[in-house]
Protein: DEAD/DEAH box helicase
Organism: Phaeodactylibacter luteus
Amino acid sequence: MQLFQTDTHKAAHQIVFDLYHFGAQLHLPTGYIVSEDRDGLLAHIRQKALPETIGSFGLPLSPTLSRLFQLVEELQPKALEARFKPNKRKKTTLEELLTDRDIARSIYKYAHARLDELLSTAVKHQIAITWQVERTVLAKDFVLLPQPAPLEPRLFFKRETQGVRYRLQLEDEHGTWPISSKDVVPITNHPAWIFVDYQLFRAPAINGHMVLPFQKKEEVIIPQKSVKTYFQKFILKVAAKSEIEAEGFEVTQHQELSSCILEPIRDIFSGRWALAVYMQYPGSKFLWSDRREKKTSLEFEGEEVRILQAQRQPGAEHEKVELLKAMGLAAGEHAHFYPEGAQPDTPYATLEWLSSHRAALQAAGFQLLPVAEDGQQLYLHPPSISLSAGQDNDWFDLKGVVTVGEFSFPFIKLAKYIRDRQPLFPLPNGAYFIIPQEWMARYKSLFQFGSREKDGLKLAKSHFTLLKEIGLGAGEEVEEERQPATDFQPSPLLKASLRPYQLEGARWLVGLYESQLGACLADDMGLGKTLQTITVLLHAKAQKAQRGSSAPQERPAQQLGLFAPAEDFDTLQPLQSLIILPASLVFNWEAEIRKFAPSLQAYRHTGPKRYKDIRLLSRFDVLLTTYQTALRDQELLEQIEFEYIVLDESQYIKNKDSKVFRAINQLQGRHRLSLSGTPIENSLSDLWAQMQFINPNLLGSFNFFQKEFIRPIEKLQDEDKKAQLRRLVSPYLLRRTKEEVAKDLPPLTTKTFYCEMTAEQKRLYEREKSAARNYLLENYDAANPQFRFKVLQSLTKLRQLANHPKMAVEAYAKGSGKFEDVLEHMDTIRRGGHKVLLFSSFVQHLELFKAAFEAQQQPYAWLTGGQASQEREKAVQQFNEDPSLGAFLISIKAGGTGLNLTSADYVFILDPWWNPTTEQQAIARAHRIGQDKHVMAIKFITRGTIEEKILKLQEKKARLAEDIIENVQQAQFSKGDLEYLFD
């Protein structure tokens, strides 16, 4: 909350259009840039407003302003002089032109039409209009206040011997008043805009100049000889729209209701079309809500003026109004009618209602007046549409015919108008058909995502949801195809039992595979995305074999030699799938395939010695490669049409402008699958990149996606756009959280994650291992305690290098494979709202993560052996109670026992301990009584290091491990044991 207001107010500005009196009966406009005071009110003129000047004041040039500036330019004196002077070579001023009656008439007609557009537009868009403002005054004191209700004329006539006494008064919402009682100035003649005491009125029932005789007096005398001419010229047209009182004239009375007239009108303030309902009597008509019971009008017979008086029939009028209400209309603002339930943002709802009810209205005796918008006649006839779609491989061909009255045309012709939100469609007769609002919304997506082809629309198969939404059978058929394959059973070649949710995921993937649509599997970390993918790859190989000559045979995968004969290709029937993944995951994938699908022949397409022969690469079931290798080998990999292309950690392609994104999207694959626990990391643009890979153009071009989805959703929180985006992507994205599938999970899952060393890390490790091995084997002396201590020291240093070389080499400034992998896992878990315990046997190792968390401003808890018991208790309490604390760094010796940390559901063992019991005790800090979540423990092992040996020792040589570490003085081991440890 701001307690003190500092004087840092940045001046804001508005564009104002001022009206000034040029001369005779002409007012002209000028645009100004006006500053605002602290209350947001108009203050002083800064300078003239021009399209070129407003930008420097931070004012954008909208299409509306562009048009207003154009009108101002057309109404400048110089522009009027150039347009209307009869002799183009002779210099003539506008003042001189106005002295010529005929030229002046043309100028007034031209200028008043443009002033009408300027005033109407400014009022509609709430742009301020001022009256003869000057630079020395405050503009707020000269602002005209637009009035929503128009001025109504009231005419008074009294026949006398010498002629007719005539009065004109005006009526606003407060009553009727003489013109001379206020400051009244006509701005335009026809259509009439009138200045009244700094209020701005429309007066559509009169000509503006009619008020001029009454500015100084209340009535005028019309000589007897001029009565007919005056009435015909000035009064007749106005009389039909006005209230008349007359004395001394012959009066003819009428009481029958002739008809009920429906006049479509556009409200100048809201922009909505409405229906004005008039009751027509001979010589007069009444707005249905008018309180007057009778009206007087004029009629001529020879030289005589006759008065017609209409007496209203409330009963007959009520019947008409009730009939309109029964047909679905409701009275709204200004006594106009709108379709019941019509929203303010549907300006054409009334005209659409008229189109659909036209025949019924005419049959009921209503008279419908023609309607035009901006001079364009509107064709109010009920439209109909017939659509059909046929599927051609991966595409739909959509065709349709629109019928409006006597006209028919292809549905595709509406494309541009619906895409551009332009509801007026031109017909051959020159009139315009109003595209229904429901069509604008219903078919917009079709035209946004489809492409024109002859007289139809071509739509990608992945857009089947768009056809389904409009009820076309082709979309329903694909919807049925891509449903989970409920009868699918995993291949007998799969060496694993799938949990229920994993089987459901595999069936979902198979459903999309069978319908040749891409998929994004976005399950939480640890739920088995790899296993579900392997299951589908086995199914894909079986399906491909059925398309070939024989079924696959179970056999262990073998490394294919460089000179393997090509003629065995048909026998091998390789799947030819490509899995692209981060370098750190290559070994893990290879191990999972070897474990769960040994029949699949996998090849690691990495490193400098990788195959570059397309004939060899085509022989494998699975190629495992990294994102960077795929980029470097793009031309090579493009030569294979893969059965499957799989991206693991597919957020790696989230940058649409990256070389990796472009390269991978150039690869050819019959089926595509992306795997990611975080399909949206920072922005919806991440989602676009993923969908573009699995189903190209599903979300349109990126520029289109940014305009239609990113901006409305991320900036405006547009719920409709969110719903539309969900409908588009939901068929292809499956995400289950750990909480959702908890019933299918065991209480504890333990997983080993293999990390790759960086190049520099591996160099240091190999150098240290070689030196230690040579020294220890050459100086072997198992009985010597000093020798046994040297063994422990060497093993510890190798463990440190496997974690992060900085632990052993203080000056080391490069990376660590394990360190980066753990941080990536942490980021994924943090985004999922989970908590994690990080255990290490090295405090120094924990300190590296502590520094990284602090640099990222991520809160954490800390527990090591050097802390007092009170500090330990406080750290545990804070971690369990504070939801923002997502990570707890713990020394495995200090925190392995005696702690209750059930708020965490992930456990990271950062480095393996010789004795597996110690690790189990650490995991039990989270997996214990009181834990209501599934616990996932991940052991991070650096491949090709002493850590892999420790894992095997945990299984086979736990006694040796315990002796070496726990009981150095008494440990007994052979030279062969040392060779095993330092191999």
Remarks:
- The chain has 33 helices and 44 strands.
